[in-house]
Design goal:
Elements lengths: L1 H8 L5 E5 L6 H5 L2 E5 L4 H5 L2 H10 L4 E2 L10 H9 L3 E2 L4 H8 L1 H10 L7 E3 L7 H7 L4 E5 L9 E3 L5 H16 L4 E5 L5 E9 L5 E13 L2 E7 L6 H17 L4 E9 L4 E7 L6 H8 L3 H9 L16 E8 L1 E2 L5 E2 L2 E2 L2 E3 L6 E5 L6 E2 L6 E9 L2 H14 L1 E3 L5 H8 L2 H5 L12 H4 L6 H12 L8 H13 L1
Parallel strand pairs: 1-2, 3-4
Antiparallel strand pairs: 5-8, 6-7, 6-8, 9-10, 9-12, 10-11, 11-14, 12-13, 14-21, 15-16, 17-20, 18-22, 19-21
């Protein structure tokens, strides 16, 4: 839906592929052309590169945008798209191969002169891998080379669990990425996760669109992203943004990408580069006013960037909160159900990116993210307050969500002070538990919404009971 909106704005025709279970989604209805894919499951269909490319050729498309996941970082897919005579909206296959392999990317940026965390790479000397990992000292982070989204990563706080963590990371690396290669990094106790949005073209031009802070995470999955980072001075911001440009320029990077760093309060260490559009890109768009998808299309069409670094200015503060189908009070267990009622609050400076509709069934087939609530205000405090207000006004009945948890988190004193780090939620479990079930704010908001049109009518209470009865069932 995000991509189609920009295509519409630019007057371009859109085609979308879909599996039959997604036939009734908003994205399919929005596209000018919709093409059904065959597959035993949605995932099988959306990973079927040959079928997708054949569908694109039948529809005579000129360019293919891979979205955020699935094949978006597959060099093989990007190469096959180009071989079919279709423009791939993203980096070159060579850049994807370089940055998609974390071990290779790590070595590349180190040779280019950028700092990386101390690590032990298994393939350097497999027989001494565990002992070299122990030499790094505790705590440790075991990572699959081809990993992404935190999948397969294991924290080790006791050397007795190291062998089990290595075995588990290898299994998950093979399961998710078909690649069991591993490396181990020394894990900083309270690091901050800072990433920089970059844009490059085929003429050697690279610009940054400032940083995003993504330190509020659970299980290595981002929950809240914001820009600018409350941890960075103007000098530190300039340093990390220039490092990101340096990494991208060294890799001859084209199109949109994100260079991610770990920040220990003094130094930035290269973590990885995501060779695609990031899920959290709306916060960057909110403060810069630049449509990143439009920029992707412009560069993919072979044009030179029209933006110079001096043209890009950050105004105010933006926060993105991810609404998940999960129960934080039950260790973030995934939740399912049919959406019986869905109402988005309307507020100035608020953008909601979502593809769900009332009546839709939420399953565990995909990532649990249901919507992204993005707010923009003059200051960080105002943005946090507005985001918490939106979370409390958001009505979604029929499937438990983390809305109440997000509202608590955004108003937590530690968060408001800016003293966050990647272990913040683990060290503050009370935020997940809260004072009530996660559906109560939605029920109260729904009650207000339902009774407002008939406040002076005897029908108000029966109507409310009927709606809550649907939700309870």
């Amino acid at each position: 839906m995000r991509i189609i909106k920009t295509l519409r704005k630019l007057g371009l025709h859109s085609a979308i592929v879909y599996h039959e279970v997604d036939a009734a989604t908003l994205a399919v209805s929005m596209a000018d052309t919709a093409i059904a894919l065959e597959g035993s499951s949605p995932i099988a269909a959306y990973l079927d590169a040959e079928q997708i490319i054949a569908s694109a050729r039948r529809a005579s498309v000129g360019a293919l945008h891979p979205g955020y996941g699935f094949l978006s970082e597959s060099a093989e897919f990007a190469r096959a798209v180009a071989s079919a005579g279709i423009t791939f909206v993203g980096p070159t296959p060579e850049s994807i191969e370089l940055m998609g392999d974390k071990i290779r990317a790590r070595r590349f940026v180190q040779r280019a002169g950028f700092p990386v965390p101390p690590a032990a790479v298994e393939e350097d000397e497999p027989e001494t891998f565990a002992s070299r990992a122990r030499d790094l000292g505790l705590p440790l982070l075991v990572k699959p080379s081809a990993g992404g989204g935190g999948k397969g990563m294991q924290i080790v706080r006791d050397f007795d669990t190291l062998d089990d963590a290595i075995a588990q990371a290898r299994r998950e690396g093979l399961r998710y990425f078909g690649d069991g290669r591993l490396y181990v990094e020394r894990c900083a106790e309270k690091p901050r996760h800072i990433e920089v949005q970059v844009l490059g073209d085929s003429f050697g031009n690279v610009v940054h669109l400032f940083e995003r802070e993504c330190s509020v995470q659970r299980r290595f999955q981002k929950i809240i992203e914001e820009t600018p980072s409350p941890a960075l001075s103007a000098e530190l911001r300039k340093r990390v943004c220039e490092m990101a440009i340096g990494v991208a320029r060294s890799a001859n990077y084209r199109n949109a990408g994100t260079v991610e760093f770990i920040f220990d309060g003094h130094e930035f260490y290269f973590l990885e580069m995501n060779a695609r559009l990031q899920v959290e890109h709306p916060v960057t768009e909110m403060v810069t006013g630049i449509d990143l998808v439009a920029q992707q299309l412009h560069v993919a069409a072979g044009h030179e960037l029209t933006l110079s670094q001096s043209d890009i200015v950050s105004n105010g503060h933006a926060i993105e909160a991810r609404l998940y189908a999960e129960a934080p009070e039950r260790e973030y267990a995934p939740t399912t159900g049919k959406i019986l009622m869905l109402e988005y609050p309307e507020c100035e400076g608020v953008r909601i990116d979502s593809g769900i509709v009332q009546g839709q069934k939420i399953t565990t087939a995909f990532d649990p993210m249901l919507a992204k609530i993005v707010v923009h205000s003059a200051t960080r405090g105002e943005a946090a307050l507005k985001a918490a207000h939106v979370m409390r006004q958001f009505v979604l009945l029929g499937c438990e969500t983390n809305a109440d948890f997000l509202a608590r988190l955004l108003m937590d004193d530690t968060f408001l002070s800016g003293q966050i780090h990647t272990g913040y939620l683990d060290q503050n479990p009370h935020l997940a538990i809260g004072q009530c079930g996660s559906d109560l704010p939605a029920i109260l908001a729904a009650a207000a919404l339902l009774t407002k049109p008939v406040r002076d009518s005897a029908d108000a209470v029966p109507k409310l009971h009927a709606e809550l009865g649907k939700w309870r069932n």
